[in-house]
Amino acid sequence: METLPIPKFFRPRSVGRLWKVDYARVAEEADKWRERFQIAAAREDKRRVCLLLIDVQNTFCLPGFELFVAGRSGKGAVDDNRRLCRFLYRHLHRISRVALTLDTHHVFQIFHPIFLVDREGRAPAPHTVIRLEDLEQGRWRVRPEVAEALGYKPEELQAHARRYAGCLRASGKYDWIVWPYHALLGGAGHALVPAVEEAVFFHSLVRYSPPRWEPKGDLPFTEFYSVFGPEVDETPSEKTTARNRSLIEWLADFDTVFIAGQAMSHCVASSIQDLLNDAAFAGPTRASKLRILTDCMSPVVIPEAVDFTEPARLLFEDFARRGAVLTDTKRAWSF
Q1: Region 263-270: what's the mean pLDDT?
Q2: Domain-located, residue 332
Q3: How far is it, in rounded angstroms, from Cα 8 to Cα 260?
Q4: What is the pLDDT of residues 214-232, one digit of tens each?
Q5: pTM beyond 0.85, yes or no
Q6: Does 76 fall in a domain?
Q7: DSSP codes of every residue in 215-279
Q8: For residue 196, what are the contacts with CB-CB under 8 A and spacing of at least 6?
Q9: Percent of residues, the chain, with pLDDT higher than 70
Q10: Are 187 and 275 in the same domain?
């Protein structure tokens, strides 16, 4: 069986909206689907395939939410998720497990507006870039009330802020950007996109295969683009080794790992980079396990502010040179 049909309950036009999944109906259809197409439990798969979905959450994927990834088309994440859902439905008999990362934030984090103030006591606007010299010259300082709320003296967090800005500059990856409040734990933005949630739920029931959930990003003093580790691995008082070795080792046990999600230029790119830098996926043979669904992800584009399309393209070309396979939902199974 090459591909399965799309279940009738899937509504392509609903992918860009917020709604409640009808679990009872989907569960009933899953039993019928398994019997109708004689789909075996995932534990019987001879070729083990994982679908890794990075931050497919409302905050990034629904228009009107805090950090909707529109891409240049203006509809990026919505179109990406429509293709992603169809991919999962058509190939759920081949996909053994689904793993999902969840960007998980709190109000008091270093990249949120509350963390810093200027000389007049005003918070930076979203998308402000914070530079090392801004901190050294006193343009920005850590808000004293935040330092105290987190259990530190203001001067301790101010010293950390300077170290943090310096580490980001030395890494050459990303600037320190003030993001709008987003993916707040317990909020609607933190939740999975309903259409994708529905597809993952259906897959788990049909294949008797529970999804693996990987929250990331709740450390207050660093950005956490990659699911495998923070941008700066230190707190104000000590070094930390918050590296997700268990997930890397778990993924390495699959024959193929498909990757999709948001945003292509940030969390997806950083996660792939960390995988390729690890011994488990280093070298062309191991790296070729990674199949990157480029039509199920979009770069960050903020009109008249930033456009990460070209930096993302260059990064992904490098991933391909290192052995990862750039593909799409139409060509994904050509191996």
Answers
A1: 97
A2: no
A3: 24
A4: 999 999 999 999 999 999 9
A5: yes
A6: yes
A7: EE---TTS---STT--SS-B-SSSB-----HHHHHHHHTSSEEEEEES-IIIIIHHHHHHHHHST
A8: 53, 56, 61, 81, 84, 85
A9: 98
A10: yes
State residue 32's pLDDT score: 97
Domain boundary among 130, 161, 177: 177
What is the pLDDT at residue 304?
80
Which amino acid appears at position 229 of this protein?
A: G
- Residue 302 DSSP SS3: strand
The reply to whether 55 and 165 lie within a common domain is: no
Q: Which of 155, 177, 199 is the last residue of a domain?
A: 177
Same domain as 157, residue 70: no
Structure-token pair, residue 226: 């990659």
Checking if the pLDDT of 1 tops 80, the result is no
Q: What is d(CA 316, CA 269) in angstroms, rounded to the nearest whole number?
A: 8
Taking alpha carbons only, the member of 204, 224, 221 closest to residue 212 is: 204
CA–CA distance, 22 with 12 (Å, rounded to integer): 16
Which residues, including other chains, have CB under 8 Å from residue 6's CB and lie 6 or more apart? 86, 89, 90
For residue 198, which of 7, 1, 3 has the smallest C-alpha distance?
A: 7
> Who's near 312: CB < 8 A, 6+ residues apart?
264, 265, 269, 299
| 60 lies in some domain | yes
- Asked if the structure places residue 3 within a domain, the reply is no
Residue 153: which domain range?
113-177
Per-residue tokens: 319: 């991933």
Based on the structure, what is the number of domains in the chain? Answer: 2
Are residues 55 and 173 part of one domain?
no
Same domain, yes or no: 133 and 229: no
pLDDT of amino acid 236: 82
Whose tokens are 């999902």? That residue is 100
- In one-letter notation, the amino acid at residue 246 is S
